[in-house]
Amino acid sequence: MPDWLSALLVTLLKAVLVALALLTAFAYMTLIERRLLGRIQLRPGPNRVGPLGLLQPLADAIKSIFKEDVTVTLADKLVYTLAPILAIGMALTAFGGIPAGPPGSLFGTDPWVYNLDAGVLALLALTSMGVYGIFLGGWASGSKYPMLGSLRSSAQMISYELGMGLSILGLLMLVGSTNFLDIVEWQAGARGHGWLILFQVFAFALFLVSSFAEVNRTPFDLPEAEQELVAGYLTEYSSIKWALFQMAEYVNIMTASALMSTLFFGGYRGPGFLEPLIPGISSWPLVWLIAKIAFFMFLFIWVRATLPRLRYDQLMRLGWKLTLPLALLNTVTVAAVLAFVPPEGLLGIPRLWLLGAVSLLLLLILFAASDAVRGLWNAPALRQGDKRVPGRTLGGD
Amino acid sequence: MLLVGLGIGILAVVVSGLLGPKKATRAKLMAYESGNDPERGGVGTGQRFPVHFYLVAMLFIVFDIETAFFYPLAVAYQKLPQFAFFEAITFVLLLLVGYVYVLKKKVLEWA
């Protein structure tokens, strides 16, 4: 067998494995989410199908495959069918670029499907391709509610994509590469500087908010607000097509979690201080990345159970008036520190730690000023001819 | 990976299309409109929607291009002389002028 063929086969095999793993993870993620929501609200959650409800995802999958696949008369047949396929395809592809271990650590092969030099860019591009799936799906349904839902959803996703893209610029300046391996090794490898959250906590806060909005999760799940817009862009979908959209959403959540762990929390590397206890523990493949992803998924569910939803105008204002300028501010701050502070730092404090302190300070200022800046995004929607009364408390509190 | 992802999607749709029951009735195929016959809306019926969405998309294009300019700058930043900082700041300030104009025009107010 020629070399390129075996390489191709290995890649294909890994792609299939990753895709199947993601789909299984999606299925059990729905179960875990429902059970956790149950626990948080002091009730058991699904526990009838199989022990601990473990067969529930299987039952759901079989049900959705055997359901009738309804295509409404007004729908654009081709686009209506293609949209969920596009959504799931892009979502699965995006995840393949995340490295799950050091090179060559997975039975002699590399624990990722593809590794691009512009990895971060490719991942952002692929996740934003998901907007097409959602928008086309809503448009092709040939009905009002899906159309409005998809318009809202795509406007929201592209708005917060800006915050997402801009908030990691400071991080890229520090690392000097957009390759995931470089980013992870910079944090925890042989010349490890420490997890990037230490130096970029402000950027992480912005990135976290943006990724919640980017994957349409609570508190930013307005496109699917059942009480307001029926089911948003999903209104006309049934059976497996609906399931594919849900799948794409959950895979996007996993990708966002993996992205956060890789960019800010050392990715597939474990903490170095465990190294003296059990040699090699920090470079075990899969284990650390999965643990970190699980943590962030728990965070997603926890937030869903805890926070109320924003209003749509508040959501857009939060994205454009707060996240975007603050992400720019973070970028400029990092640039200024890198330009004017020598590498060895000032007053005996190394430059990186100085940067971390500045970043933390920015976050604290934001928290302290949160009441003052709330008017930026929490203002009540003004109707034509309304005048804002000065001094009146802004709505929503 | 792309092929596998799309392939899984196509496979799922085809399998479900083969397995599911097929009993279409007129009422079942109606678009959702709380039981009424749908009025205009959706594909090709010229439904109008708020211009805000258009404005947001336009702004997104502008600022996303800005982001695209920043990426190479960010990656190469530590190799550049201090002068690069001032150049970047100039660019950011120019964009901020546009941003403030947009704010003052109340494009970002969702009334």
Q: What share of the residues of chain A does DSSP label as strand, in percent?
A: under 5%
User: How confident overall, as mean pLDDT of chain B?
Assistant: 78
Assembly type of the chains comes to heterodimer
Main sheet characteristics of chain A = none
Most extensive chain contact? Answer: A-B, 88 and 62 residues
**Whole-angstrom Rg of chain A:** 22 Å
Number of domains of chain A: 2
Mean pLDDT score of chain A:
81
- Element-level helix/strand string of chain A: HHHHHHHHHHHHHH
Strand tally of chain B: 0
Helix/strand-derived category of chain B reads mainly alpha
Radius of gyration of chain B: 25 Å
Shape of chain A: globular
Low-confidence spans of chain A: 393-397
Indicate the low-confidence ranges of chain B by residue numbers.
Answer: none
What structural category arises from helix and sheet content of chain A?
A: mainly alpha
What's the order of the H and E elements of chain B? HHH
Q: Report how far apart the termini of chain B are.
A: 43 Å
Tally of individual helices of chain B: 3
Overall helicity of chain A: 55-70%
The total of beta strands of chain A comes to 0
Note the main attributes of this structure.
A: 397 residues; mainly alpha; disordered C terminus; B: 111 residues; 3 helices
Describe this structure in words.
Chain A has 397 residues and is an all-alpha fold. Chain A is built from 14 helices and no strands. Chain A has helices at residues 3-40, 56-66, 77-95, 119-140, 144-167, 169-175, 180-188, 201-214, 226-229, 239-264, 287-306, 312-340, 351-368, 370-378. Chain A is globular. Chain B is mostly helical. Chain B is built from three helices and no strands. Classes of the chains: A mainly alpha (397), B mainly alpha (111). Chains A and B meet through helix 1, helix 2, helix 3, helix 4 and helix 5 of A and helix 1, helix 2 and helix 3 of B.
